[in-house]
Design brief:
The protein is of the alpha/beta class and 425 residues long. Helices cover 42% and strands 17% of the residues.
Length: 425
């Protein structure tokens, strides 16, 4: 079974470069048994990298030069999209058959045809940019039209609350609304949370003087997100065949586990890692620290479903203590009473994450369909309505075919999702 890995925009490609570094350089990699989720019969990665500017894609050329990636799957334009969702979604007038959308879809189509059994697409992108948000949403819709039976999992990065662009709330609104209708699940990562986790890791490991301010980089944030993705999506023993062959089912079994209803598909991910044999109960408790318990107005959040992935379980200790660990996760996430089996788990004896490469390292990655995602929807809704009331920047979107009615329809879509999470308990 095969997956197409699609990277769109600056964020999607930078995160993709970290992801492929993790996949191809991880310790204990069995190049024969583990190649099927990521490579075709010819050994090339089943990845398509798209951006409206060639700068970020230059780093991807290393994979091309090394023979791991097809040069035809690196698709670059010659001008950016100005952080404008409408420009990314509709593209330039008169692009025709050589436009970014058409070229990207042709590469996705060819990768799907090369596979033994196409199962779906994993999309890496940002919610706030022009290319990642706009073109990413359009590609998601086109893939759904072209392959209606295939799954789509979106890895979406939300912008900093403090602001990256004056257009980020418009872009996030339009992107989330479009993805809700075409994707099966959205793994949401917030830049603020990724920054906080990267700082925490560097603070624990840095050798600087006490009290000195910690600093982090975009690469460290991407490393944190790719580590979480590795915890969830890399092959696990629970889903391999008796011969040890990985079928690449992890992304689609993830959707089956944590998306019991199609109306709620926003997924939160937390991870706890240790370089030694820290008890699994302690890792479970650590993973709960980044799960928000209550809304800003004091209402308790809840989870519809939870998946825990334990890596580095060489001695079977996770399975031995699984009932207690899963009970703690069920309580910590306040799982809804209507789901009789809200917590699922996978295990793997290998620790494949590079952050803690010691032989005894282990990690617990937890993905939950958590109502805390509604906070992002409310924040975007409030700020977009203020901007629409003053008609701020609206003409920039109208120039590329996006009208005020499109914003109002997107607001209605997000309000429906927010209400679904509020009544889901």
């Amino acid at each position: 079974m095969s997956t197409v890995w699609l990277h769109v925009g600056q964020c999607g490609n930078q995160l993709g470069q970290e992801w492929w570094r993790l996949v191809t350089e991880r310790p204990g990699l069995d190049k024969t048994a583990d190649r099927y989720p990521y490579r075709g019969r010819d050994g090339k990665l089943a990845a398509v990298c798209v951006d409206s500017e060639p700068k970020v894609l230059r780093a991807t050329q290393k994979l091309v030069q090394g023979g791991s990636l097809r040069e035809s799957n690196v698709i670059a334009g010659q001008g950016g999209r100005g952080s404008n969702w409408a420009y990314g979604y509709h593209g330039q007038r008169g692009e025709g058959e050589r436009g970014l959308l058409q070229r990207a879809m042709e590469s996705v189509r060819l990768e799907a045809e090369r596979s033994d059994c196409y199962c779906g697409t994993v999309l890496f992108h940002s919610l706030s940019g022009g290319t990642g948000a706009g073109l990413g949403a359009r590609l998601c819709e086109k893939i759904r039209e072209e392959f209606p039976a295939g799954h789509i999992l979106s890895v979406s990065v939300a912008p900093h609350q403090s602001g990256e662009s004056p257009l980020q709330h418009y872009n996030t609104l339009l992107s989330l609304a479009a993805l809700h209708s075409s994707a099966d699940g959205l793994l949401l990562f917030h830049n603020d949370e990724a920054l906080s986790q990267a700082l925490a890791v560097q603070t624990r490991g840095r050798a600087g003087p006490p009290g000195a301010p910690a600093q982090t980089s975009l690469a460290a944030m991407n490393l944190h997100i790719s580590s979480c993705l590795g915890g969830l999506l890399l092959p696990v023993h629970s889903l391999t065949t008796a011969s040890g062959l990985s079928l690449g089912l992890e992304p689609w079994e993830l959707l089956r586990s944590v998306c019991p209803l199609p109306a709620a598909k926003l997924l939160h991910t937390s991870q706890a890692c240790s370089s030694d044999a820290t008890p699994w109960e302690s890792l479970a408790s650590s993973s709960l620290k980044t799960v928000p318990p209550n809304s800003p107005c004091g209402e308790p959040y809840h989870s519809r479903a939870v998946l825990a992935v334990a890596r580095g379980d060489r001695d079977g200790s996770f399975l031995l203590h699984a009932p207690r660990i899963l009970h703690n996760l069920r309580q910590g996430h306040r799982c809804v009473p209507w789901n009789p089996f809200p917590v699922d788990y996978w295990t793997d004896p290998r620790s494949v994450l590079r952050r803690h490469p010691s032989p005894s390292s282990r990690s617990l990655t937890v993905c939950s369909n958590h109502s805390g995602a509604a906070a992002l929807l409310r924040r975007v809704d409030e700020r977009v309505r203020v901007m629409l009331h003053s008609r701020a920047y609206l003409h920039w979107y109208q120039r590329y075919g996006c009208e005020e009615s499109d914003f109002l329809q997107a607001l209605d879509t997000l309000k429906t999702v927010e209400q679904e999470y509020s009544v889901g308990a």
